[in-house]
Amino acid sequence: MIAAILPAGTVAVDTFTDAPGTFLFPEEESIVRGAVDKRRREFATGRWCARQAMVRLGRAPTPVLPGPRGEPRWPAGLIGSITHCDGYRAAVLANSDVITTIGIDAEPNAPLFDDVLPAVSLPQERDRIELLRRTHPDVCWDRLLFSAKETVYKAWFPLTARWLDFEDADVTFDPLAGTFDARILAVGAQLHGRRLTGFKGRWLARQGLVVTAIAVASPHRPPGVPHLRPPWQKVAPTECDLPAATGPAAQTLAE
Ligand SMILES: CC(C)(COP(=O)(O)OP(=O)(O)OC[C@H]1O[C@@H](n2cnc3c(N)ncnc32)[C@H](O)[C@@H]1OP(=O)(O)O)[C@@H](O)C(=O)NCCC(=O)NCCS
Which of 30, 37, 74, 156 has an alpha carbon within 20 to 30 A of 189's alpha carbon? Predict the structure, then answer.
């Protein structure tokens, strides 16, 4: 499912079930030894998705251990992102010479608890989603906003190794195009040698879920890899408004 909002050059693997007996490497096993069953299953199936993606990228499956802030540490030459929520797990990977950073997130398409929205949004974001609620009531915009912000953080962290608070990004949705703009309000971060001012992402509401994704194209695209957006369009340094993948490079595995 999430492949629909990711560009060519990424490999997306997702599943709506946990395969029994999913394999963990011993060093991964030690991370979740003692964890509750729910945590073990989401961790293991997220790794299963990541390893399927590695194989599709022509790589041997390797352990994916968490870094000090929980970020998945990918083998050299790969980047990616993992998400899991009730009934859904996904991993998206790419070669780092094609894509600079990826963030993905999935959430149930259900309203946030009342006290959560004020804690994770800016006043102008709340105003905008109030309007969207009226015109597009099928989408839980508060939950989608939360998901987009988590995706922003997952794309941001590997670039900066810095915390980003919910008030440090201002997210605007386009309900018809299925895109969002995240303006980064925190200063000091760089991307491709320029100030990092924001990300463009995509979103989807389907099968009881909202999913969001950001993928930033690498400026060091190797010869033979197609342009990720039409060359006549001006590319702002922080943009990643890429065409959705159509070929075998991005696939969804629905178990
Ligand atoms: C890290 C965080 C984004 C994870 O999101 P979540 O909805 O709780 O959980 P998800 O299932 O979608 O994602 C979990 C996966 O995120 C990945 N992850 C965790 N920390 C990460 C980080 N610092 N950077 C990138 N990815 C990270 C991991 O792969 C994790 O799965 P795993 O532990 O099984 O490997 C969230 O817990 C968090 O800390 N949010 C606060 C920061 C934030 O969102 N700021 C908003 C900025 S606008």
Answer: 74
What is the CB neighbour count within 10 angstroms for residue 151?
28
Structural domain count, the chain: 1
CATH number at residue 6: 3.90.470.20
pLDDT for position 81: 99
**CA contacts within 13 A on the Cβ side of 177:** 13
Full-model pTM: 0.90
Range of the domain at 41: 2-217
70 lines ligand 1 (CB under 6 A): yes
Mean model confidence pLDDT for the chain: 88
- Please state, for a pLDDT cut of 90, what percent of the chain lies above it: 80
How high is the pLDDT of residue 161? 95
Give a yes or no: residue 254 inside a domain.
no
In the three-class reduction of DSSP (H, G, I as helix; E, B as strand; rest coil), residue 21 is classed as coil
Which residue out of 83, 101, 145, 171 has the highest number of ligand 1 atoms within 8 Å of its CB and is therefore the one to mutate?
A: 83
Q: Is residue 238 part of a domain?
A: no
Classify residue 228: in a domain, yes or no. Answer: no
Which among 73, 81, 146, 153 is the best mutation to test ligand 1's pocket, defined by most ligand atoms within 8 Å of the CB?
153
pLDDT in tens, 71-112: 999 999 999 999 999 999 999 999 999 999 999 999 999 999
Q: Worst-scoring range by mean pLDDT, 71-80, 111-120, 158-167, 224-233?
A: 224-233
Query: What phi-psi label fits residue 188: left (phi over 0), alpha (psi between -120 and 50 degrees) or beta?
Result: left
- Alpha-carbon distance of 115 to 37, in angstroms, equals 28
